[in-house]
Amino acid sequence: MIERRITVPAMQRDTPPHDKVIPIRLESLRAPAAPRYDGAPLADRLGRSLRDLRISVTDRCNFRCVYCMPREVFDANYKFLPQASLLSFEEITRLARVFVGLGVKKIRLTGGEPLVRRDLPKLITQLAELPIDLTLTTNGSLLAKQARALAQAGLKRITVSLDSLDDATFRAMNDADYPVAEVLEGIDAAAAAGLAPVKINMVVKRGVNDRQVLEMARHWRGSGHVIRFIEYMDVGSTNGWKMDEVVPSAEIVRRIGEVFPLEPVDADYQGEVAERWRYRDGAGEIGVISSVTQAFCRDCNRLRLSTEGQVYTCLFAQSGHDLRTLLRAGASDDALRDQIAALWRAREDRYSEIRGAQTDQGESGRRKVEMSYIGG
Ligand code: SAM
Ligand code: SF4
Ligand code: SF4
User: Fold this and answer.
1) Strand 133-138 relative to strand 157-161, pairing
2) pLDDT digits (tens, 9 = 90+) for 17-60
3) Which of 56, 66, 67, 113 to mutate to test the pocket of ligand 2 (most atoms within 8 A of CB)?
4) With the C-alpha atoms ordered 62, 66, 68, 74, is the resulting torsion angle positive or negative?
5) Which of these, 142, 145, 176, lies nearest to 160 by C-alpha position?
6) 351 lines ligand 3 (CB under 6 A)
7) Terminus-to-terminus CA distance in the chain, angstroms?
8) Which atom, in ligand 1's list, is nearest to the CA of 241?
């Protein structure tokens, strides 16, 4: 196994120095050739099928959300990936086609902030030819300008992250002094371009924005858009996650339900991440994503492709599997397919289910890849 460490110069600060190294072990660079894929439906070691692919198109972002890319780590000295190591749009599309051949039905473009990747609509045009549900997650800051081009390129749906409607709280959370109003404009532009209903993601951190949960629910009630409340997760190794900053989804449903009565809605499909609730008065739906308090590993059908072509079988993985080297060495589609199929069949990740035992109220101590690199 080869270990690659992205090292960033030490900080000149009076705060305790972070270990600014993101551990990425590249497992398959010298892996033996995988057995030939037999064409049977793919199932991993826990019987889970492969359905969702998340593709990170950049590790860069114009925000510094405190729970994702803390500024003291992702500062001016931080070394983002060089252009040459990024998968090109052609490489991404080729891999996507192989994944679709193995059963992938849904592709989500993410990052980092996907809208900072130049010419993104060109990639969307290429991916839109595949028989998949194509969607994208964005912080919304560049959406007002790009919504129409994205929709024209073939994007069908979009998710926008928005952690607060209170401007001061939002600016503090994105730590880039970015105003709420422009994200709201982006959501309107997306709806006008035909990307409605928009899904809106709010990461809830106790003591930071949890007081705005009800306000957020009230704001989007009856709008046709769907707000989803996400439990703050211990992704990566830099956000200083603590269990007592997590607001359990059950508490969110209770708080909203006390004011606007709710009832559960069946999942759209097996493995759907958000648990759905609807207002009894018909004013629409909300979702809760309980990755910490109610792990959903049992149905997890997701694979992640990083910006530089590493495949990760879990959001909390410590190592990836290198497809870019294979691609650039001239591997055939069949060889790529065999590798991916073998990787999925060997998969046994279930980090969120075992987190409780490992973390004991705090960090697990294990080094995990950052979400901005692997793709949220
Ligand atoms: N930049 C885009 C955005 O913010 O929507 C896409 C990438 S971001 C990593 C994808 C999603 O992950 C966002 O909805 C974000 O709020 C969420 N996220 C990031 N860090 C998180 C954490 N520690 N816990 C829970 N959700 C997190
Ligand atoms: Fe950027 Fe999205 Fe991470 Fe915020 S959550 S820092 S917008 S990648
Ligand atoms: Fe899937 Fe890993 Fe999340 Fe479990 S912890 S739901 S296996 S990505």
Assistant:
1) parallel
2) 344 445 455 554 455 678 999 999 999 999 999 999 999 999 99
3) 113
4) positive
5) 142
6) yes
7) 26
8) 23
Whether the Cβ atoms of residue 208 and residue 169 lie closer than 8 Å to each other: yes
Closest ligand, as measured to the CA of 301: 3
- Distance between CA atoms of residues 40 and 103, nearest Å: 10
Angle at 278 between CA 275 and CA 281, to 5 degrees: 170
Q: Look up the pTM and report it.
A: 0.91
Closest CA to 8 of 80, 112, 111: 80
Sign of the alpha-carbon dihedral angle for 356, 360, 366, 369: positive
Tell me how far apart the alpha carbons of residues 323 and 308 are, in angstroms, rounded to a whole number: 9
CA distance 174 to 73: 14
Give me the residue spans of the domains in the chain.
2-374
Could you tell me the maximum CA-CA distance found in the chain, to the nearest angstrom? 59
Q: What is the CATH number of domain 2-374?
A: 3.20.20.70
Centre of ligand 3 from the C-alpha of residue 299, in Å = 9
The 10s digit of each residue's pLDDT in 110-146 is 999 999 999 999 999 999 999 999 999 999 999 999 9
Whole-angstrom Cα distance, residue 216 to residue 164? Answer: 7
* Distance (Å) from CA 351 to ligand 3 centroid: 6
Q: Report the distance separating Cα 314 and Cα 349, nearest Å.
A: 6
